């Protein structure tokens, strides 16, 4: 395996609490495909051959059974990384009552020493579209490790990423005229009301421009980003654990924002031209099923793959 060939990292350790089940392996078409099957199909077409799934031990049996059968014969190399609550820096212990994973940046930190090539990150339960994988792969195959890190993100207009079924989390972005990321802030309570989009902070709603660019966790990083997540986790805990021991989360956009402000990285924002689909809530599923039926009718995807 070429150690510098771009890899795909799939975030699949989320609890699925809002959805009410293990949404990562819930079929979305009559052939039994799950959302990640479509993403992997697109990723393989783009050139990815090495895939790392980040999961929890408690879903290992069910998840691996499904993925191993779905990926058989696809010509991909698969690894599993475990994001566990007990994976804490020396001197820290798991707070009583903590059930929630430590967040996406902690998930990436768990890849230290395992993912050693430029890599793309995606959510297991989001659909990004063929063009997104092509663009991020083309960026990663040419990126070089330098003193200043060069990353990329596929950005989507927020109007194409919200659900009518409840609140979602989005990385709300500021982008300059050259399509470089200026800042990103994780907003955890984004929703639509009366045809408008809002996020709520400290109980106060703030309207968002529907054209605003947001991150859907489709990133392109070099190995340096894993090191940054790993080294910054302890500081995150020291600043947040006492205030919110059961629910504080270490997010990828937080680390990106810090690196931007410190001048240690730049992030090229690639335009996501496809419509996003996802299953944050069970009520989202019928629209996703309908969308994939339409994709197949138009020949975007074969019936079986």
List the defining traits of the structure above.
305 residues, Spore Coat Polysaccharide Biosynthesis Protein SpsA, Chain A, 11-stranded mixed beta sheet, two-stranded antiparallel sheet, globular
Q: Encode the helix/strand succession as letters.
A: EHEHEHEEHEEEEEEHHEEH
CATH-defined topology: Spore Coat Polysaccharide Biosynthesis Protein SpsA, Chain A
- Tally the structural domains: 1
Q: Judging by the overall fold, what is the CATH architecture?
A: Alpha-Beta Complex
Helix and strand content put the structural class at alpha/beta
Helix content: 25-40%
Total number of β-strand segments?
13
Count of helices? 7
Distance between the termini: 24 Å
What ranges have pLDDT less than 50 throughout 5 or more consecutive residues?
15-21
The level-1 CATH class? Alpha Beta
Task: Give a short account of the largest sheet.
Answer: 11 strands, mixed
Cα shape: globular
Query: What is the typical, i.e. mean, pLDDT?
Result: 91
Strand composition percent = 25-35%
Please tell me how large the radius of gyration is.
18 Å
Write out the CATH superfamily name: Spore Coat Polysaccharide Biosynthesis Protein SpsA, Chain A
How is the secondary structure organized here?
Blueprint: E1 7-11, H1 35-46, E2 50-55, H2 60-71, E3 77-82, H3 104-109, E4 119-123, E5 126-127, H4 130-142, E6 149-157, E7 168-175, E8 181-193, E9 196-201, E10 204-208, E11 213-221, H5 223-240, H6 252-261, E12 265-271, E13 277-278, H7 285-297
Parallel strand pairs: 1-2, 1-4, 2-3, 6-12
Antiparallel strand pairs: 4-11, 5-13, 6-11, 7-8, 7-11, 8-9, 9-10
